[in-house]
């Protein structure tokens, strides 16, 4: 199952950062300075994410959700549960065009083939986040069939944390690079639509990172445009214990950004926490456990505005300018 032990020294850790000021991110509506905390309204639910379960074949060093072969804090969502939320989208005439599947490793969910067929048959674009290792490779036949039927409406985004093996394996464990690269090459040769998710190391510019990935794709014979930010997504490092600025309402004009630029303006995620009777909707793919971001059992309940009261809101979304969606 490609199990590994957690790497000891990931280059993506924020060990140099000061610890988070304990006065920050305590009040939903006010920052530690007393300023009005920034909030984000849901403009339209364009992407609906499903966390298919936190179980994963790997134990990565800095996994924000702490996925592993033993962590089932988020249990497997069933195809029937996912179908229920897609029916709510259709009944409500919501603007949802994309379904995202994340984990853990989505291909460890025993109903993943049914889930993919369910989403694609309803006409949605589907984005699957995967490490492209053995769990995914068990589904080669069904992926080929889905690709043949639905074409570019299905995208597999492969996690390659860096364009060099050493950095990737320092995060994901010994032996993880070759298996991930082999999975990426298989997807490309099978004619499936692919993307890659990576991260920049400190001191490396985005242009340098993209050039490194472009060289890698060239060596592998993978037709992927490293300059296209939808096909090569470069995420910032995350650490909820590291200090970061809080985002106030005034920051929008200071930073030259808009609330609509932030992920929670257009997406929500469904999770099933162990011990809870049914799935819940949360504000963000990054915050499946934080109580202040739990929005209820239905998409209608989850349409309220979100106050950016978490370090991830600042570091990943606003300051990092990142989004999990296409």
Explain the layout of strands and helices:
Elements: E1 39-40, E2 47-51, H1 79-92, E3 98-102, H2 112-121, E4 125-130, H3 134-137, H4 140-150, E5 154-159, H5 165-172, H6 176-189, E6 193-199, H7 206-220, E7 232-235, H8 251-255, E8 267-271, E9 280-282, E10 294-296, E11 306-307, H9 311-318
Parallel strand pairs: 2-3, 2-8, 3-4, 4-5, 5-6, 6-7
Antiparallel strand pairs: 1-11, 8-9, 9-10
Question: Could you describe the 3D structure shown?
Answer:
With about 325 residues, the protein is of the alpha/beta class. About 25% of the residues lie in helices and about 15% in strands. It has helices at about 80-90, 110-120, 135, 140-150, 165-170, 175-190, 205-220, 250-255, 310-320; strands at about 40, 45-50, 100, 125-130, 155-160, 195-200, 230-235, 265-270, 280, 295, 305. The strands form two sheets. The chain has a nine-stranded mixed beta sheet, with helices on one face. Strands 1-11 form a two-stranded antiparallel sheet. The two termini are about 30 Å apart.
């Amino acid at each position: 199952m490609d199990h590994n032990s957690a790497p000891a020294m990931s280059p993506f850790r924020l060990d140099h950062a000061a610890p988070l000021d304990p006065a920050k991110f305590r009040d939903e509506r006010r920052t530690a300075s007393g300023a009005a905390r920034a909030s984000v309204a849901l403009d339209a639910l364009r992407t609906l994410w499903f966390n298919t379960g936190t179980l994963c074949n790997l134990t990565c060093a800095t996994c924000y959700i702490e996925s592993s072969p033993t962590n089932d804090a988020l249990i497997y969502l069933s195809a029937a549960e996912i179908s229920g939320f897609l029916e709510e989208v259709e009944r409500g005439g919501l603007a949802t065009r994309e379904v995202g599947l994340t984990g853990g490793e989505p291909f460890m969910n025993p109903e993943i083939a049914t889930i993919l067929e369910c989403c694609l048959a309803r006409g949605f674009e589907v984005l699957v986040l995967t490490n492209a290792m053995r769990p995914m490779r068990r589904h080669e036949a069904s992926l080929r069939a889905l690709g043949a039927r639905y074409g570019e409406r299905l995208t597999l985004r492969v996690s390659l944390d860096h364009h060099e093996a050493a950095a990737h394996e320092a995060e994901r464990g010994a032996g993880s690079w070759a298996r991930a690269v082999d999975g990426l090459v298989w997807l490309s040769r099978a004619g499936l639509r692919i993307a890659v998710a990576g991260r920049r190391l400190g001191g490396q510019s985005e242009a340098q990172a993209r050039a490194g990935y472009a060289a890698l794709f060239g060596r592998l014979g993978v037709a992927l445009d490293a300059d296209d930010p939808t096909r090569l997504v470069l995420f910032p490092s995350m650490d909820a214990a590291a200090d970061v600025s809080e985002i106030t309402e005034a920051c929008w004009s200071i930073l030259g950004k808009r609330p609509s630029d932030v992920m929670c303006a257009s997406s929500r995620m469904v999770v099933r926490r162990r011990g809870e009777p049914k799935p819940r909707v949360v504000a963000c793919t990054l915050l499946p456990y934080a109580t202040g971001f739990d929005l209820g059992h239905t998409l209608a309940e989850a349409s309220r505005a979100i106050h950016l009261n978490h370090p991830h809101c600042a570091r990943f979304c606003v300051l990092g300018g990142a989004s999990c969606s296409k």
